[in-house]
Amino acid sequence: MTNIAAMLDAPAALVPDRAALIIDDGSVCSYGALQDETRRWAATLADALDGLGIDPGAGSGAKVALVDWGGVRSTAVTLAAAELGAATAQMNPRLTGGELAQLVEVSGCAPVAVVDDEATAAVAAALGAGGVVLHHPSGISSGAVSDPGARAIGGDADVLVLFTSGTTGLPKPVAVSHAALVARMAAYRARFDPDRAPTTSLMCVPSFHVGGMLGLLLSLYSGDTTVIQPRFDAGAWLELVARHRVASAFLVPTMLARILDHPDLATTDLSSLRTVAYGAAAAPVDLIRRAMAQWPNVAFANVFGQTETLGAYTTLSPADHRDPARAGSVGRPLAGVRVRLVDPDTGLDVEPGQVGELWVQGAQNVREGWLETGDLARQDADGYLYPTGRRSDGINRGGEKFGPHEIAEVLRRHPGVADVVVVGLPDPEMGERVAAAMVLVIDHQAPTLDELRDWCRPHLAPFKLPEVVVVVDALPSNELGKLPRAMAVELIRTSIPRS
The dihedral of CA 281, 284, 289, 294: what is its sign? Predict the structure, then answer.
């Protein structure tokens, strides 16, 4: 298999009525129906690109913006673009028009997008005049794309563009090839076997995140069933696990905390649940201990990775979770993965047990060579890694990762703000919350938190809006004229009582 769209061929032919996707509204999409929908979308995308003079099958590597929540449409469009030899640039529907326009530009998208209804206006603004915004396939189900022999080769061609945030807050596109995805799937899962009963997993992480997309593709690759919860809700999550007898799920620690705190937890039948993987943000040790006590028969795995490594490059196994000495560890590197801990200032490996920046090399990296992850960690004598933070000042709010720079820039445009610093303030529920310390324009009345959030709302996604704001007389700096993140966090913490 050189094109990921081919993963539907066998299950659609041999078990066409098997559930591929179950949406949280109760609708079910079988493998046969998913392939039909994929072909309709392939024809629709081909027509839209052709209307712009773009031939995705001619090696142009056309990129189409996909601004949608997880579901049948987003899955079919992802595979439809693959059929054609194009790629989908996966974007968050909660972003504003300006934020989306930036992603369209940096990823080199054609002015074609498939969007969730609520994101229509923002996407139209991002694409500009002449942009094509699609919500539904044209209904065409025949034509060249219905013949697997006409399918694009795939291979080293890009099929996905995911986004990660740099230290300045500017989004960085990460292009993923068919070959990289196929290799990743083959290493994780066995190919579809019609004689094996399918397992059911629950995807509550957005499909535009690497964890959601990879989990979805792995399930389809094996001919399994995925229950999709496009927008997480702890009570609904519990109900979905019970109703569909879900066996496995991936959770961000914030999600896990809300599930454990939900009043329906004690009365919900979760006996089908066998494995829970967690990651995307640091998980408090006490939270994991609490989850293990609540579900003693569930195997927990901590997965640690990033978009550029197509998800996890280390894992803390279920057995490791039973060892108190491994508390706080993200485990050891996966087979075939090499890691280094490097002094960021010298580029030399640090001494054993010392903290350094994690560099990763492995076949799962989307690009060859060593990847400088930006994560700081130490490694013990047995090879277990213990993260200590990030080199950058990036904010990780409940698994949503973004830079503080863009938030600070919006706040600085407020007429009452003379200067501001934005950081992630450690928080037991969300991991971090968006916090700002600002210096007011002289004689200007301090704006309220609600006023500042309203000011930011047209320019920033909801999860980027400030949640803690303090007013200070001045922003301190170190001997280099900079305000380090740790200093900014302490400034905000000590200012909260008087602010």
Answer: negative
Q: What single string gives the DSSP state of each residue in 176-200?
A: EEHHHHHHHHHHHSPPP-TTSPPPE
What does pTM read for this prediction?
A: 0.87
Query: How far is residue 460's CA from residue 401's CA, in Å, rounded to a whole number?
Result: 13
Within this chain, domains 4-334 and 395-498 share the same CATH topology:
no
- Encode pLDDT of 234-260 as tens digits: 999 999 999 999 999 999 998 999 999
Report how far residue 6's alpha carbon sits from residue 221's, in angstroms, rounded to the nearest whole number.
9
Residues 340, 345: Cα–Cα separation, whole Å = 15
- pLDDT tens for 113-155 read 999 999 999 999 999 999 999 999 986 654 444 565 689 999 9
Instruction: Write the CB contacts of 147 (distance below 8 Å, at least 6 apart in sequence).
Output: none
DSSP symbols for 451-483? HHHHHHTTTS-GGGS-SEEEE-S-----TTS--
Helix (H, G, I), strand (E, B) or coil at 211: helix
Q: Which of 221, 283, 208, 193 is nearest to 3 (CA)?
A: 221
CATH number of 4-334: 3.40.50.12780
The CA distance from 209 to 431, in Å, is: 18
Domain spanning 395-498: CATH superfamily:
ANL, C-terminal domain (3.30.300.30)
Reply yes or no on whether the pLDDT at 325 is more than 80. yes
Mean pLDDT of the chain: 92
Residues facing 421 on adjacent strands: 437
DSSP assignment letter at 484:
-
Query: 35: buried, middle or exposed (CB in 10 Å: 19+, 13-18, 0-12)?
Result: buried
Q: Give the N- to C-terminal CA distance of the chain in Å, as an integer.
A: 60
Q: How confident is the model at residue 487 (pLDDT cuts 50, 70, 90)?
A: confident
The span from the CA of 297 to the CA of 244, in Å, is 18
Identify which of 337, 340, 272, 346 has the alpha carbon closest to the alpha carbon of residue 311. 337
Long-range contacts of 264-272 (CB under 8 A, 24+ apart): 264/235, 264/238, 264/239, 265/238, 265/294, 268/238, 268/239, 268/241, 268/242, 269/242, 270/238, 270/241, 270/242, 270/295, 272/200, 272/241, 272/242, 272/245, 272/246, 272/247
What are the structural domain ranges in the chain? 4-334, 395-498
